């Protein structure tokens, strides 16, 4: 019976399929079928009192703002070590817009944040050969097997997030795909193609050095195969650059510049444009709804066997991974084209390029405002965001652009801290109609790289309402098996991944030092023994670590970080709050085109800036969907008292007349 369920696309029989995300205690109450959407009770759910401005008795300053520099923060010269690996682009200092790949944002260091350079480190790498070989345990043996850690410590249990909805999760993945794209090694030294597992799915005795070792132990509770085939991340040595230790290549532009929609590659960016009136190419679905354009050959990009099937293209190759990701990327496309129409009608003389660049600049500004005004305070806590200068100003320009601050994506962020939100993922996604009824639930495993469902009937809006109303899973040590056991199921088990294993193994691949070093970087004491970890986590978790690792210095950052107690007002523990905070700080003050900055080439005028400040995630949902009611705080589940659904007409949005040329 179970076998049947797992292999069918329908949801019949799923009722008893209890997993993290399979049940949702706070799901929409659909007893009010009175066809009256104004009855906000239909969306009522329970929100915990955990509020974002709760006081933290032990507040932390991010490494860049911490006066104590003896904590392991690298010097600027070391942070910027990889600059010499990349040719210096020529920059036009008068150009008013961002380049597509992020180059020339920093005029003195034009490769900072540029796509196809390397992630930066702010803490010393740890490789066993001080170059690129994976860290060993203190005793000199291999570190514990990641799959063993995963099946012991990170199982699947349903604990809905007390406050955040699934849009909070989805927006985090959007930020990820905007700023990080790891590139894999693909060849052996002799140029032959890389195979990391034997044909019988065991791990080769002499594992090629280009491979990650993910061997599945014989007593594994979940999987029949014994090896997960994954290549290591391409690094600076692969580019012929001799810096030591290596750094990992990043295919995305590091800036928060919606490159996942526009593309950081010039040729692709052009090919995604209509080249008329600034608009991006799109396809029309039912009822003339706008969707991302289709790939010419769907079978290349999607898990489909028909070359004309629905399969999207955008600025990022991962767009078809799951329906919700495709939907939120589409939402930015719709926003861009909406702005183009407004700009064109106000300024009929503007040419295609001018409309495109201005619409792009406004899309990015609205997105950055949502990030710093709503997303970061929800994720890290309002007090923390304020103390670390992450909140936007309420009036006037910000003049604090810091040309010495490198905004490139951090290894510790991409390979550990931000990945912890894989725990947020709901395994079953709700589709919700305009009356608040859950019309169906889909399992992630059935929709990896099959985006057709997005474009059927009114599903776009059904998915969007699901994102707004369905709780995320809690940010904790439990992960849905839709990503740990059934990720990327293609035709057979052979291709399955365990995302949580990958998260841990990537930390080692990137040479991240162990958890203990991040404690010190983030102002905590060095743990001399496992017992010293008790200041940040329960005794039970310390015991788990004692069983898994030989030495407290062996504990992976990812594992220690997930185990930490949440900081007051935040969904993350101390060391993740610290690195994620550091990252958003660099993306703000190290971005010359950050929307609040005044006196920069291409800065908004004050009227325009004040219009951008009216943007909320709720307003973006109203502009880009056919939903009529949204919660004012669009990252928090609706609640009749604390976060009621309100009609879109009552949600403020930027007035674009500030862009009308006088
Ligand atoms: C919706 C379901 C999601 C799926 C199926 C998914 C899947 C994946 C996969 C397969 C990778 C590459 C793993 C590797 O090769 O090491 C990855 C990387 C990553 N994910 Fe997710 N992810 C999801 C959501 C999220 C969310 C919500 C966040 C954060 C809020 C996130 C953050 C990251 C980060 C930071 C990386 C590293 C990116 C890079 O450096 O290329 N992911 N994810
Ligand atoms: Ca970007």
Automatic annotation (TrEMBL):
Record: residues binding heme b: 422
CDD domains for the chain: peroxinectin_like
Keyword Plastid part of the UniProt annotation: no
Keyword check for Coiled coil: no
InterPro entries with a match to the protein in the record: Haem_peroxidase_animal, Haem_peroxidase_sf, Haem_peroxidase_sf_animal
GO molecular function, one term: metal ion binding
Swiss-Prot/TrEMBL GO biological process terms: cellular process involved in reproduction in multicellular organism; response to oxidative stress
Compartments where found: Secreted
Keywords recorded for this protein, A-Z: Heme, Iron, Metal-binding, Oxidoreductase, Peroxidase, Secreted, Signal
Pfam family, one: An_peroxidase
GO annotation, cellular component aspect: extracellular region
PANTHER family the record matches: OXIDASE/PEROXIDASE, PEROXIDASE-LIKE PROTEIN
Protein name (record): Peroxidase
Organism from which the protein derives: Aphis gossypii
């Amino acid at each position: 019976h179970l076998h049947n369920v797992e292999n069918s696309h329908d949801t019949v029989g799923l009722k008893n399929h209890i997993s993290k995300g399979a049940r949702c205690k706070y799901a929409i109450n659909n007893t009010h079928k009175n066809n009256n959407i104004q009855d906000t009770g239909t969306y009522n759910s329970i929100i915990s009192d955990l509020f974002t401005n709760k006081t933290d008795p032990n507040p932390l300053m991010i490494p860049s703002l911490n006066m104590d520099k003896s904590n392991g923060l690298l010097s600027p010269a070391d942070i910027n070590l990889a600059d010499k690996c990349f040719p210096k682009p020529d920059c036009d200092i008068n150009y008013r817009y961002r380049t597509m790949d992020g180059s020339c944002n920093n005029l003195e260091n034009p490769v900072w944040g540029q796509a196809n350079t390397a992630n930066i480190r702010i803490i010393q790498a740890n490789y066993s050969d001080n170059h690129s070989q994976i860290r060993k345990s203190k005793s000199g043996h291999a570190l514990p097997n990641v799959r063993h850690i995963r099946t012991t410590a990170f199982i699947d249990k349903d604990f809905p997030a007390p406050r955040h909805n699934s849009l909070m999760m989805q927006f985090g993945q959007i930020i990820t795909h905007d700023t990080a794209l790891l590139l894999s090694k693909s060849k052996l030294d002799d140029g032959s193609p890389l195979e990391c597992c034997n044909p019988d799915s065991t791990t080769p005795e002499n594992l090629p050095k280009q491979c990650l070792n993910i061997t599945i132990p014989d007593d594994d509770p979940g999987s029949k195969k014994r090896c997960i085939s994954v290549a290591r991340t391409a690094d600076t040595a692969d580019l012929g650059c001799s810096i030591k230790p290596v750094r990992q290549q990043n295919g995305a532009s590091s800036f928060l510049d919606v490159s996942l929609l526009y593309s950081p590659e010039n040729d692709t960016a052009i090919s995604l444009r209509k080249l008329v009136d600034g608009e991006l190419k799109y396809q029309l679905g039912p009822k003339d709804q706008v969707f991302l354009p289709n790939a010419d050959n769907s079978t290349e990009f999607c898990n489909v066997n028909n070359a004309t099937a629905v399969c999207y293209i955008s600025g990022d190759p991962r767009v078809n991974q799951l329906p919700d990701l495709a939907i939120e990327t589409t939402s930015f496309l719709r926003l861009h084209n909406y702005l183009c129409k407004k700009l064109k009608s106000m300024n009929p003389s503007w040419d295609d390029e001018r409309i495109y660049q201005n619409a792009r600049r406004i899309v990015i500004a609205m997105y950055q405002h949502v990030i710093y005004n709503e997303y970061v305070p929800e994720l890290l806590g309002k007090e923390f965001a304020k103390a670390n200068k992450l909140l936007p100003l309420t009036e006037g320009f910000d003049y604090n652009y810091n040309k010495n601050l490198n905004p490139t994506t951090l290894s510790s962020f991409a390979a550990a801290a931000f990945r912890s939100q894989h725990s947020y993922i709901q395994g079953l996604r709700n589709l919700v109609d305009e009356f608040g009824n859950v019309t169906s639930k889909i399992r992630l495993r059935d929709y990896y790289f099959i985006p057709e469902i997005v474009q059927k009937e009114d599903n776009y809006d059904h998915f969007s309402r699901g994102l707004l109303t369905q709780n995320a899973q809690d940010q904790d040590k439990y992960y849905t098996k839709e990503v740990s056991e059934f990720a990327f199921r293609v035709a057979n088990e052979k291709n399955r991944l365990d995302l949580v294993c990958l998260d841990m193994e990537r930390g080692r691949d990137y040479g991240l030092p162990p958890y203990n070093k991040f404690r010190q970087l983030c102002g905590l004491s060095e743990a001399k023994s496992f017992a010293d970890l008790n200041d940040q986590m329960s005794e039970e978790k310390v015991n788990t670590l004692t069983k898994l690792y030989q030495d407290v210095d062996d504990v992976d950052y990812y594992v220690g970080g997930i185990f930490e107690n949440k900081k007051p007002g935040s969904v993350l523990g101390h060391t993740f709050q610290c690195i994620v905070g550091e990252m958003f700080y660099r993306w703000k003050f190290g971005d010359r085109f950050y929307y609040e900055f005044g006196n920069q080439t291409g800065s908004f005028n004050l009227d325009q800036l004040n219009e951008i400040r009216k943007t909320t995630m709720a307003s973006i949902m109203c502009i880009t969907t056919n939903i009529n009611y949204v919660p004012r705080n669009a990252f928090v589940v609706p609640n009749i008292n604390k976060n009621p659904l309100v009609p879109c007409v009552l949600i403020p949005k930027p007035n674009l007349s500030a862009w009308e040329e006088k």
